[in-house]
TrEMBL record:
Pfam families in the record: CarbopepD_reg_2, Plug, TonB_dep_Rec_b-barrel
Range of residues in the leader sequence: 1-22
A GO term for molecular function: siderophore uptake transmembrane transporter activity
Residue ranges of every copy of the TonB-dependent receptor plug domain listed in the record: 118-224
Annotated family: Belongs to the TonB-dependent receptor family.
Top-level taxon: Bacteria
Subcellular location: Cell outer membrane
GO cellular component, one term: cell outer membrane
Main location: membrane
Membrane topology: Multi-pass membrane protein
Keywords annotated in UniProt: Cell outer membrane, Membrane, Receptor, Signal, TonB box, Transmembrane, Transmembrane beta strand, Transport
Protein name: Outer membrane receptor proteins, mostly Fe transport
Amino acid sequence: MKLLYKLYILTILLLGSFFSLAQNPAISGKVTDAETKKPLTGVSIYVKGKIYGTVSDAQGNFNLNISPPATLVISMIGYKRVEIAASTSPMNLSMQPSSEELDQVVISASRIEENILRSPVSIEKMDIRAIQQSPSANYFDGLVNLKSLDMVTSSLTYKQINTRGFNSTGNSRFLQLVDGVDNQPSGLGFAMGNLFGPHDIDVESVELIPGAASALYGPIAFNGMLNTRTKNPFIYQGLSVQTKFGINHIGDGTGLGAKPMGDYAIRYAKAFNNRFAFKLNTSYLTGTDWYANNYTDIDPNTPEANRGPNNPGRNALNIYGDEVAKTIDKIGRVSRTGYEEKDLATYGVYSLKLNGALHYRITDNLEAIYQANFNQGTAQYTGSSRFVINDFRFIQHRLELKGSNFYIRAYSNQELSTNSYNTRSLGQLINRTWVRDLNGNVVSPDKADATWFDRYTAAFNGTINGVSGQNNSLARAFADQGRLLPGSTEFEQAKDKLIQTRGLSGAGILSNCSLKHIEGLYDFSQYLKVFNLQVGGNYRKYYLDTEGTLFDDKGKNLTNEEYGAFAQVSKDLLNKKLKVTFSGRYDKNENFDGRFTPRASAVFSPSDQHHFRASYQTGFRNPTIGDQYIKLNVGPIIILGGAPVNAAGTNAYENSYTAASVGAFGSAFGADLAKGVPFPQAVENNKNKLKKSNVPFIKSEKVQSFEIGYKGLLSPQVLFDVNYYYSQYTDFLINTVVIRPNSNVTSPDGSINTQAATDILTGGTQAFQLYTNAADKVSIQGISAGLTLSLPKNYRLNGNATWIDFNLMNADPNNIPAFNTPTWKTNLTLSNSNVAKNLGFSLAWHWQTAFDWYGTFNELRPGLVPAYSLIDAQISLKVPALKSVIKLGASNLTNQYITQAYGSPAVGGLYYVSLNFDELLR
């Protein structure tokens, strides 16, 4: 927060200096539609070959503080691009309507501006008009209507996105950039979806690359990349205000009633003398989170037919503490009484976003930018447990120097988590604070579980006066005497204490991790006559600080460094009908061998309307910081990250047996001992059943992908896009369990060491869960197709469908991450921004097939995500005199409660009304 205050003060001081420099612009004019003669709002006007420009206002007027000679480039989606010499007299410019896709420009596909039709790889774009007209509650939710994209909801304030399979609720295989800045908190190792980042009010465009983009963007862009660009304060000036009020939880079955949601945002931007500009953004969203209240009994040790609310060993999906269970002799399996998630979680969620940026144009071709972002929020995250990301702070700084053909960018990400916690651990730990022995005395937490089962056993067996035996309900009630009841003072005190306690004795999570990053790019194309060339590189350093609660970093300066460089060459051939591009990138992390990832593509354009593309792409993903550096002793096992430096001294990778062979040895030894074989002889008889583990240290995951596609205008009103891809993956990151004895696992002659075998039987061992890679190979293939129709009277219809197929090939399923992706998904959007005077609407339909979700929350056992369809809708009324838009909308209009990941909450309808004032005081 102190940084933001300093930024505001600096802005005020700079304003005082630059007001004196303000002068009347030298270039002014008005832009109109050539057919209707009506003024055009939001037309981009910039100086060719320079870095500055502006946009037309609500009356089509524009001003630029430049002096001729200069060439102006005038562009707007849906109109033909115009280049014209600047004039000091008022310029009256008219634009001819054309297919909106013909001149649409993207940057992310090749890291340079290019026509979207000639992109060498599949790319989707949501422009500013699509953002404004989206029927979804916000622009991020509206991304679900893009081809190939999957969205998973863990919380009202946290949705995760992915493309092309191997989906998860915390996706470390997908890169999210905002103004070129990686939006991941470094300790988490993945971007938190929509919890952190820009508000709709400041978003100009979003570009999506489905599939590997590592050749240009490095290891995180393994499955794809989302690039969000915010509004430049030179171009988008004035005061913008958005107020949105909504309700959710209508008819959710809980009886708690509908809940309000509020979303409020203010943006102000101002430019002076075409040299200095600033912008300030503030937004705050608050509401009641979706409830995770699936109480299905998932206990794997109870036959499915016997599961349910009356099962003594019940383990309900969203009840925590009942995972602690025991099979009692002559009684059967019994679990402890757990707590529902609603009693443990923080369902009052919010997202606060503060942003400020200063832009200074040093020359006509050189601009300096400083930007600061402060984010704080609360969300639920479904991982191995349900985690409350509570009051989580995420602070970013960006400093950039850019010209028309280069940029140098440095940024830092800092996270601060002091109130976050694990709800499953919290439920189990509260259950260990109140258990009484048979004399009525509260026992210590380490004895609580065993004592509870003793009480249950005694009551069930009829040895407790006043309690009838052979009755599970009465036995449970007796064992639960003294149980802390949700909502009671004692319960809340225990809950708060355990949240503030970190490590194995508490549920709290601490992270103060950060990263620093610097990168640059230079486009040499203007100096070369034969081909185009771009060269770039980056350096990144992670700083880990969890005070020993997650990493072995207490009292240490634990860091991790990586760097990368790339080059891209492109050439137009056959009279610019064929464009070939070759890209190559080298990346090196201090813990892994260097990786070279090439990409080659060709785009054949027999005409301006038809474009055929083919590409070969490679990608890789380095293990996350957690995969490398976790060192967590959870009692019976140590979870150990796979970086060699992290495992040093543990001897776990070098000197251990496979867990399966230890089990086989123990069983065979026990059988011999039962037959009367002496202990030493039983060890010698069976020690050769032990197998030395051969677990390599972790390395990067890899993918190779081939893609062909077509994108073109079948007529001026019909755009068609289709692509087919085939990808092969290998070296997926997995976990394996080994047993390390105190003695050497083998003797000098290579045989199994008898003393090490004896260690197993006498308790001289330590179990480890190690991170490593599987050599198994799998493949996916898929087809995506989209159709856009420009219909009469300004109607527009967009439709797309995606089919994806996963082939396990000969791989061991235990060695492959869960695919977690529907086979089919489709989207259909009908819109008209001017169906009547100043009245518009849009209607979006999404459908996808059912699939099994595998996740660590359910210990990698399948849970069905049923097929579902959703409808989003909005109607909007423009009030030009007030520069405002009133929108009435609904996300999930029919209020179906759907689940997108097993264990995550069911999501219902969200109904809202918003009032937007745009570019006031311009």
